[in-house]
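Quarterly update from the structural biology core.
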Amino acid sequence: MGGPRGRLISNSDRIKAVKLINDARENGARLKPACRELGISSRTYQRWTKNGGIKKDQRPLIKRKPPKNRLTKSEREKIIKVANSKEYADLPPSKIVPKLADKGKYIASESTFYRILAEEKLNTHRSKSKEPVKRKIPTHIATAPNQVWTWDITWLNAFIKGNFFKLYLIVDMFSRLIVAHEVWETENAEYSKRLIRKATLSQGIAAKKNKPLVLHSDNGSPMKAATFMATLEKLGVQSLFSRPRVSNDNPYSESLFKTMKYRPVYPSKGFKNLTEAREWTSKFVHWYNHEHLHSGINFITPYQRHYGLDINIMKKRIETYKKAKAAHPERWSGKIRDWSLPEYVTLNPMDEDKVEKYLNQQSS
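Predicted structure, tokenized:
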């Protein structure tokens, strides 16, 4: 150690420390207690006074080799260039890295991207939204597509202040795929019936008495209308409602609406008419299903997850990372990034033991 807690001490301070210890020893003090009072060890004192004089500390003068896992200047510049490119400029590193992996490219880890961008002051928050709040409410579970759907109605601003269009939307909880949507000027049970028929037809859903499709929603009047409930019964769909006075019991639909309304291209000033609202929503649904890398499903698109394309995509990402690790093993302190996919999805977080118990009950 160079001094107290390993700090490097100047040569003048060393001379003062040695003089104080020598004076203490001349007055009968022992070496170890005297050194301890100054926060150094007796071995440090002996090293300083070796050969009868004060030995100057050479450690600050030693040229140290750069760490083997340090990025080269060109690699660092490539990270900055890619992050600022037109294709990736509006994406965080958590989405840039998977997109590169899908192309068979690996530049650096996600954490390295974040670190480099932070050092360059380029890692700004790219959303108008606040950080999401984690929820802790036990509820339904899906282990495959078309087991649990959630749906809701949100209002879209019209160009005329005080007017709104109504977006009806159903999302698959397991894959996050938007399976059906409609935009109307009012909330009506007839539109709800049309929406669920459209969704079941597009997914080829047949009535199952032993394990019916679950449709979760809040307690709005279009969701609980008698005609709509009768339609669900005919289709063999089981209705499931949010608990009274629980505002966050439908998180997947709420999260999707939030994603939509915080998109940079969302027309915050409002839609001019119903046709414009429908056209914009259709474009958003296509982007969300086919282009959006969803963080909840390890950065693949809902379409890829829903139709089983995710397995080969993850295999390719794993191969890309293994090749990158083989090329520069010194840059990897452990295993490659975890590209596994969740085996189940819960409507709200549940403890693993409760999930296991629930799944066992469902299979029996």
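The longest helix spans residues 310-327.
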